[in-house]
Write the structure tokens for this entry.
Amino acid sequence: MKDLARILGLWRGRAAWLVLGAAISLASLAAGVALATVSGTVVAAALLGGAVSASLWLRVLGPVRVALRYAERLATHDATFRALADLRVWFFRGLAARAAGGLGARRSGDVLARLVGDVEALDGLYLRILLPVAGAVLLLPVLLVALWPLGADLAIGVALLFVAGAFLMPAWARRLAQGGGTRVAEAGSALRVAALDAVSGIREVRAFGLEGRMLAAVQAREAALFSAQQRQSGGLAWAGAASLLCGQAALVFLLWRVSAVAGVVGITALFLASAAFEAVSGLSRAGWLAGQAQAAAARVIGAAAAPPGEIVQQAAAMSLPPSSALRFQGVRFRWQDDRPWVFDGLTLDVPQGSRVALLGPSGSGKSTLAALALRIVSPASGCVTLGGVDVAQLAAADLRTRIGMLNQTTHLFSDTIRANLLLGDPRADAARLWAALDAARVGDMVRALPDGLDAWVGEAGAGFSGGEGRRLALARALLSPATILILDEPCAGLDAETERGFLSTLNDLDTTGAGGARTIILIAHRLTGVERLDRVWRLSGGHAVAAAA
Amino acid sequence: MSERKQSADWLRGKAAPSMVLVRRMTALGLLGTGAAIGQAFCVAGVLDSALGHPSRWSTAALLAGFALLAVFRAACGVLGDRMGFAAGAAARRRLRTEALGGLLAAGPALLRERHSGELVATVIDRIEALEGFFTRWLPAARLALLAPALVTVSVLLVDPVGGLMLAGAGLLVPAGMAAAGMGAAAASRQQFAAMARLQARFLDRIRGIGTIVLHGGAEAEARGLGLAADELRRRTMRVLRVAFLSSTVLDLAMALALVTLTLRFAARLASGQGDPGVALFVLLLVPEFFAPLRVFSASYQDRIQALGAAEALSALPAPAPDEPPREVRNVAARGVAVAFEDVRLTWDAARGPALDGVSFRVKAGETLVLAGPSGAGKSSVIEILLGFVQPGGGRVTLNGADLASLVPRALSRLTAWVGQTPMLFATSIRENIRLARPEATDAEVADAVRLARLDGFLASLPDGLDTAIGEAGFGLSGGQAQRVAIARAFLKDAPLLLLDEPTAHLDPATESEVMDSLRRLAIGRTVILASHSAAAHAFAGNGFAVRRVDLRDGQVVNARGVA
């Protein structure tokens, strides 16, 4: 509940809209119940020969109810959209702060997708959970007051049944969702892993004749998911039925009392109770959603609201030095205290404007080197200096304007080519964009597209081949003011021919960037032979060993 | 519009096997409505007799009837929900098996055009999104017509004028929906699409958050997201103002029915005409008349979602038609000779042929090195032999038998394969090796591990052979993964060994170790190794009888006896 309250706290700025929506929503509910009740009163009055003055109310309430319902839909949806926008921006900012600390960067795409799903699960918090509950809270005293003249026992009995149907059953559904929801989520990701295995391993599947086994594995995981879902859906159905029966029991009680002494009050009460129970009939679903939202809120807050990584910004950051010479001096680093040293006294000089390669088998710490330079992590001892200044004394944002990075997780956004490039330099004009594209040797490819720079880059670069995608990312990196470009396994996942093409493009890059000569640091597990380099180091045993250039 | 119609047709076709359950759910829904009519009758009877009109039924009987019908309604609800889940689960199971079967049958060629992540998202998420279509929409669409009709008939029987008024108000709903601007459907479709776009953008930016942060664009992007959401809200609200009119028509129709019927009965009763029981009965049924229409309108978005999913699913390759039973050719298990005769293959017409009249022969037990630069067609030769793709022309034979006459299973028995980067499945290392021959004993797996020189590495793992690897498991380095693939090949013990650049992604030290293991694996088998020449020399270094074929642009440029 604390987490849900925290999410609600984010919406403080939208309180006016949310309260307005809630007020209209409650007014609309009141009008609806009143309409049903008054129609009962009118008929009862006619039957008993009483005054028919209520029929005027009827004529008014009908249109009022319709208008309020329309206003309610507009106001509550508008408020929801506002609140959601806030939630998304807050989540993005929180995650960005953590990504800068290096934590977000290691999260897999699948985990992120699930988190985004969690943010969306909070969509219904206001509209589908809070408002229905508020409605039920409003109806309870109304019911008590209206039924009191027919007997205190009746009023209290019906009120208790109302509490059971509108609050207890939903609470039970909420617990159901909390317990079973985890099982459903786990079964769901097991199914996804099995399907991903079958599809990405399709060559092995075909070569070893595994089609039947793979299909059976997916079906087994699917059956597990269905059985977890079935428990949830079955439980929800029972909660709904129990809630319905509470209402029906109340009606039987009320009918039995009215059958003894029929009067305008009794018939009116019957119509009122019927409408009230009808209005809360969907609450067990709301309870179920609340259980899910609670779990989602906990995950969302865990991901975005925790303090950022270990690196704390120094109070007074130094300004960037003019030179971009990068130097690692006696650097020791390990990811965790109980893991072996990745670097054990690494010393390495990368003069500005040089082209160097760092080679080493996987696990030798090549990518850690980039993380140290970008200050995503800090060394245990020793230091990394840029132009003679310890990077720990520079503001992270400044450092990143000087050092650019391209690796296989570099993301192409599902936006236009132009928007993707402008991330490198928001002020670049079309001429500079084209120059960068040409330098990365994708200019001709983009020119051939009907929409040119405004062509749409599909989801995660879909629509372009792997090589074209990397070249677009390279063009973006070239636009950035960075004078040091770290290419961390830039060709991972590309076939050998595309890899050679990309690497030979690097050879021809103009190394005189805006801020002076541009340094290129290529990180790879091997060289293909096409690279033109000034120096080559091999990482082994936590040290850098010079190798033939 | 025609695309939507296609999707709708596709869905209708796929829904056909579910229709039995849908009809049962519809029947249950109608029974529920029938029970509600019965309950209205009971309530009207109780009140009528309380007002002093003698009734055929005693109050106690009517109350008992009401209670029984309440239990019956609740039971119908639970049963209907269960059936709905069963219908949805059966449909999802059916569609997923069909879609995945189609993907597996289409084979590795599919991954040349589509990304595996995208295919999996379709097979998992899009099919999950179909649930509401089967559990809610299909019965709701039927009940929206049948249940109000049932209520109308029961009212018509006791009060023809009231029945007509109710039916008239009901008819306002479709008429009003059609009149509300371009139609509620179009508006709600647009709203759905706009929401989906915003969600997609948000997910995309979150996925690329590392890239944004490294480019220093986080603050600008956060503002951009806020603006986009706000802009979307404005546009969506414009659409919703129209879309909500259709729901308002429903509210209006119901209020109209309630108010006019109440006033009519009040006037008639006040003037001493009419039956109070009938009046109460009809008024109590007004909500029952409109309830199915509300459910229909609420589940409309299930239909929209299903149409989107149908579009993605119908774009997947169709499952292979059942193959006519072909004679399984028996190719001698030991010693396979391979011959390519003028083989042609084109992946993509725009990029020219990958193989352009390739001919060569490999005798049983011989090793052939396919050399040549990238794109020369080396991998295409291997993929033809693995059955990943059929040649566009020419003939490939194994011991003289045409490859095309072999069923996939027979071909897979003959070949073992080590590619550039082996796929490790999310299970234990043992199961990853055993998949090469599921019936292998533990001792045989242990032998394969030893022969692939995997035992030293396994000793360093906490659970040895039973260590879980793959997604969320222990990560293996490229060289270790390649050793798992070699162990698979040892375990399979097939007469034809196909090696496709097995060391392309390894560093030099690991490469020579892996080559060493491969040489041991090659003993006594027919081997085809596609590799760049340095690796080929390493392979031949052991004094193997090696033949070499140089490929360039899909053609054989020379064939030498011994490299």
Q: What stands out?
A: Chain A touches chain B through 139 residues (CB under 8 Å). Chain A has two domains: 2-304, 326-547. Residues 211-260 of chain A form the longest helix (50 residues).
